[in-house]
Structure formats: structure tokens, C-alpha cells
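The following block was generated as part of the benchmark described in Methods. Ligand: copper (II) ion.
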Amino acid sequence: MYLRILITTFAFNLFFFISDLKAADVTIEMLNKNKETKQRMVYSQELVKIEKGQTIEWLPTAKAHNVEILVAPEGYTIPKKTKLSEKVTMTFDVPGIYLYQCSPHAALGMIGIIVVGGDTSNKDAILKEKLVGSKSKKKRDKLVGEI
Ligand SMILES: [Cu+2]
């Protein structure tokens, strides 16, 4: 009896251990308001640097947001924009800079940048992208300056 409990407990722990291993490397929340910065309609982290092959998870903490990749390095196939209010998980295997926006809130400056593997060779393409609204453009320029 004890042995059975012991084995069950072990299997249970192993399951959670393996689940942990599969967790995203970076988690970004999609927010109506960032409580720290007081900014509205933002991703909780706007500039994220990851290694090649790492995974980012966007959580629909607030509803009606999504992820739409606009510019990516060559060799990466840009996926369709994601559905609103959906949890998004993406793995980045191609080094370079990625620029994305939240489709409904692009004009409000809801954009983000990901740098994979420290590769900034497509920086010009990022800076050339015509974004919706001056707020997004200003933020993009600021974030690129922080890379
Ligand atoms: Cu949004």
C-alpha cells in the first residue's frame, strides 16, 4: 500500500517536473494597463532578447489583444495574426529582429520587439516598416535604440 502511494507520488512529481521543462522561456502579458508604468494597451515586456530556439508565450491577461508579426528576418515564415484573447506560444529558430503589433491597438502604440540570438542585421527593415500612428513609430524607434 505504502509502495503504491510512493510510486503514485513519484509519477505525479515527474509529470510536473516534465511540464516545467516545457514552460516558455519568456512570458509576456497582454495588458489593458501596466500597473507599474501606468501605460495603457501594452505588452508587459516590449523589448525581449532571447537565444535561438527559445520560446515566448503571450498571455491574454486582458481580453481583445493579439500578436501580429510585421517584420522578421529572412528565412522565417511570418504566421497569420493570432486570434484575439488567445494564449500565443511561438518558438524562434531564426536569428534576427522581429517587430510585432497588437492588431486592434497598433495605433495606440501596442507593439513589441524580439531580438533572437543577438543578431541585429535586419535592423534597417525594422526601422523602415510603416507602422500605424506616430505612437507606434516613436516606440519602435525607442526600442530599437535600446537593443
Ligand atoms: Cu491590444
